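Changelog-adjacent note: as of this version, every example in the card shows the full chain rather than a window. The one below runs 353 residues end to end.
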Amino acid sequence: MELAALCGAELIGDPQLRIDGPASLEAAGPNEVSFFGHARYAKELASTRAGALVVPRALDVKDCAATLLRCSDPNAAFTHVLNAFGRLPARPAPGVHPTAVIGRDVQLGVEVSIGAYCVVGEGARIGAGAVLHPHVVVGPRATVGERSELRSFVTLYDGVTLGARCLLHAGAVIGADGFGFDPRIGRAGLEGWDKVPHGGSVEIGDDVEVGANACVDRGRFEATRLGRGAKLDNLVHVGHNVQIGEHVLLIAQVGIAGSTKVGAGAVLAGRVGVNTHIEIGPGARVAPGSNVWHSIEGGRDYGGYWALPRGEWMRNQAHMNRISELAERVRALEKTLAKNLEKRLGNEQGGGA
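Full-length structure tokens:
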């Protein structure tokens, strides 16, 4: 009954059922609550021992003995469940740890939390309610927006701007130099590489999430930008001067070369590589492992080593899957042609005799 009230859910079943915590459909026991959000998990539902399930109102749950918590937004409801049982990381209490190093002219908003061994550079601004976990480095003149959270070992280089309600996971590096080197040519040829200075910065909009060990490089002259609501997975690399639109998804190990633009709402799946100085249109969706070498239109699906529209890519893939069969057919045709040619030559020679 208490969980139903917490979730704003309609309760169907035993209101007195004791729940000890949340668990997956496969692992849940009679005194645990789980989540069933889609009919594709019907196999797991049939074997679950969960005592209670959070389910969408419109989803038909057949032959299930569990108590149901029906709600309009089951994802949000189950988040409340996880919070209620202390399964989500708690935000640290406000305050500045005595081992933190705070530079001159730093502006700290109300109720900020700055953990052990953090370093905040001169002239930086930390917005109200922001959280810096232990060992975070915020460079000089950098800005952290209200209610943003930086997990341990995040580094913001000098001058970086981070919007409100952002979440940066452990090890993310924002504002490192872009990768730029000019060849140094001498009489004997290449003698080395001269570093190209990067005097730009990084600007990150509100409600952006950056995954663990992701890197966003600073621009050479202007700013590299991540638009409002963009989400970057772990190990994503965004090169210098790249412009990422609002609500873009960049999934694990995506790499985007410098000065490329990614339109709003685009989705680049795992290990997608993107060439420099091109544009990916709004709403484009690129399949895992693809490489985008040229600009592509928005609102379409793409895939392949040289990313093509989805239909063309699938046709090419189908042909690739038939290469062995096609090779056999070509060999058979070659044999037939050779026999026919031999027979024709034999007839011509016979007629000549």
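Structural remarks: The radius of gyration is 29 Å.
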